[in-house]
Write a structure and sequence with these properties.
The chain is built from 8 helices and 10 strands. The chain is an alpha+beta fold. The N and C termini lie far apart (48 Å). The model has no long low-confidence stretch (mean pLDDT 89).
Length: 219
């Protein structure tokens, strides 16, 4: 698949024309269907992965197979873990799944090394990505350490809604929410019912409808 320099400029506005030209011509574009597994925690990722379109959910997976949702990879962002794993041939220790039909660009390690030497904007882009993920990691630690599950659920729903362009309806099951928060469906259903009774949202089969009150802080 070919993506033009003009299209890439819209997605990676900080990149100069020479870098965009190499990105378009020297890298591989890969399409993933919604729900398709992109990487496993025990796999070796040889290339850096950047998202061109769509959305990818990244999870941390425990030894027993349980998962915890960590962050979304959005268009214009690079998977920082894939960069370090690709450059140093390390095992990929997170799980990535396409949240919707997605297009990623795969950048070989020798190309990434050359870009680090030749393109300052690439170096800035990678450093900014690591800063973003580190700040996200601190936020995740704060939520697990200091927030009750109902507050974590509230923050999770806020993130899901933002990622869905602030849609009023979120198509998601109680089981999926439970999996993302490493909880149980029964507990999540009970908390959602409480929020529904308080007028924040309405629950339906496989969907959540946000009401006007949802825009207020949760207390």
């Amino acid at each position: 698949m070919f993506v033009s320099v003009e299209e890439l400029k819209q997605i990676f506005p900080s990149f100069g024309l020479p870098l965009l030209k190499e990105l378009s011509e020297a890298c591989t574009f890969i399409e993933f269907d919604k729900g398709q597994l992109i990487t496993n925690p025990d796999s070796y990722v040889k290339n850096g992965m950047m998202l061109v379109s769509g959305s990818v959910k990244v999870y941390r997976q425990g030894d027993g197979g349980e998962t915890y949702f960590v962050y979304f990879l959005n268009p214009g962002e690079v998977c920082s873990m894939s960069v370090s794993c690709g450059l140093y041939n390390r095992q990929f220790n997170v799980k990535a799944i396409a949240e919707e039909n997605s297009l990623l660009v795969s950048v070989p390690p020798d190309v990434m090394r050359r870009w680090l030497m030749n393109y300052p904007e690439w170096t800035d882009y990678i450093i900014a990505s690591y800063r973003l993920r580190f700040e996200g990691l601190l936020d995740t630690i704060d939520q697990i350490s200091f927030l009750k599950l109902d507050e974590r659920l509230w923050n999770y729903l806020q993130r899901m809604r933002v990622n869905a362009d602030n849609a009023d309806v979120l198509n998601i099951s109680h089981q999926q929410i439970a999996d993302d928060l490493n909880s149980t469906r029964e507990v999540i259903s009970r908390l959602l019912k409480t929020m529904e009774n308080e007028g924040f949202l309405e629950t339906g089969r496989g969907k959540i409808t946000f009401l006007a009150k949802f825009d207020r802080p949760y207390a």
